[in-house]
Amino acid sequence: MFKHKLLAGFISLVMLVAMILPVYADEISDAQKALQEINQQKKQQQDNLNKASRAETTIMGQVQSIEKDVTKTQNEIYYLTDQVRYLQNTIAATEKEIVLQQKEMDKQTKFLSDRLVFIYEQGESSFLEVLLSANDIKDFLSRFDMLNSIVEQDRDLINTINSKKRELDMKKSDLEVHKRELQVAQESQEGKKQLLASQLNEKKVVLTDVQQEKEKLAQALEELEQASRQAEAMIRKLQSNSTGASIGTGSYTWPTPGYRNITSAYGMRFHPILKTNKLHTGVDIGAPSGVSIVAADGGTVIFSGWLGAYGQTIIIDHGAGMSTLYGHQSQLLVAEGKSVSKGATIGRVGSTGWSTGAHLHFEVRLNGSPVNPMAYI
Question: Core-most of 48, 125, 237, 246, by most CB within 10 Å?
């Protein structure tokens, strides 16, 4: 009897467990799925964070961030410079107008003063004498009209002088306003120049630290070479769509008229810190910031923008596999797709990208690969 009860209890327990386990298993499965989704979301967020962090920690990433601030400040300086020039011209023109109006008003005032003195000295008797000396009524009326006309002229003269005085006072008031605006603009301009100097110094500190630390220098050089490879791939891809016909003359002009000092030549160079040879893919031409950069030959602009270590860059396709690259510009004056003629201004010398001083990095490329520019100029 006891065995039967025990067996019945065991069977009931087995049945109960069999009923509970599927439900519990489903709950575990759902929980595991939810956990997997959470982990995937966390991984995605971490990947995004790492990607953003890598962008911030790359040498050129830091430089580009500073460059954005520099460009913003430079644009503000350009605007303030135009404003200062406009106000200075306005002030000069207003001062000239004031001098001329003052002379004219002084002349009219003197004339009026002389008239008033004459009227005072002669008194009313002179007017009566003129009227009473008339020969007849017709002459009397004619003389009366003439005297009225003289009085009207005097009245108009007084009104004119008063009007000119009000106009002159307004111009003087405007002049004071323009002078205050000029002072504010000049002070703001000076502040922006100091900010720009601070930003450029920040960039110089970053690049100086790079040159002093082997690991960072190796990273920066890799980024520079990566930019060169990027330019090569870009040029080959874009040139593959062209007819291959020559666009330019085939004879290159110097890209910075009036400035021919080469501060760094093309070719392999032994790096004293890395103890290895590195290719300098172009020539560096020393020139002050803002100097005009011209197209070495006619062609089509296939790139105009930021290109890693090159900074603000323009690439021109000259056809027949030839192209030229102009790096580190402070201002880009032509857009992608624009046709340019030989010697046309395309930008301004600057120090954007991996550069601590104003210069133009100039390259000549054949089928995307850099060649010695001096062989083509």
Answer: 246
Cα 350 to Cα 327: distance, rounded to the nearest angstrom = 9
Domain ranges of the chain: 60-210, 226-375
pLDDT of residue 38: 47
Cα–Cα distance list, 205 to 73, 198, 355 (Å):
19, 10, 11
Specify whether the CB–CB gap between 347 and 314 falls below 8 A.
yes
Question: pLDDT of 244-297, one tens digit each?
Answer: 666 778 889 999 999 999 998 999 876 554 556 778 899 999 999 999 999 999
Q: Is residue 18 pLDDT above 60, yes or no?
A: no
Give the 3-state secondary structure of residue 351: coil
- The C-alpha angle 239, 243, 245, rounded to 5 degrees, equals 95
Q: Which pLDDT tens digit goes with each residue over 345-359?
A: 999 999 988 887 899
Report DSSP letters for 88-136, one per residue: HHHHHHHHHHHHHHHHHHHHHHHHHHHHHHHHHHHHHHHHHHHHHT-SS
Query: 64 forms bridges with which residues in the sheet?
Result: none
The 3-state DSSP class for residue 297 equals coil
Domains 60-210 and 226-375 share a fold: no
Reference 287, options 353, 228, 358; nearest CA is: 358
Shortest CA distance to 88 belongs to which of 192, 189, 166, 165?
189
User: Nearest to residue 306, comparing CAs of 352, 255, 239, 345?
Assistant: 352
Name the CATH superfamily housing domain 60-210: Helix Hairpins (1.10.287.620)
**Distance set, CA 170 to CA 90, 176, 177, 202 (Å):** 14, 10, 11, 48
Instruction: Please compute the mean of the pLDDT values over residues 185-202 and round it to a whole number.
Output: 86
- This prediction's pTM: 0.56
Closest CA to 207 of 355, 14, 367, 87: 355
pLDDT digits (tens, 9 = 90+) for 133-154: 667 777 666 666 666 666 677 6
Whether 315 contacts 235, CB under 8 Å: yes
Residue 75 is predicted with a pLDDT of 85
Structure letter (DSSP) for residue 159: H
Quote the CA–CA distance of 327 and 373 in Å, as a whole number.
14
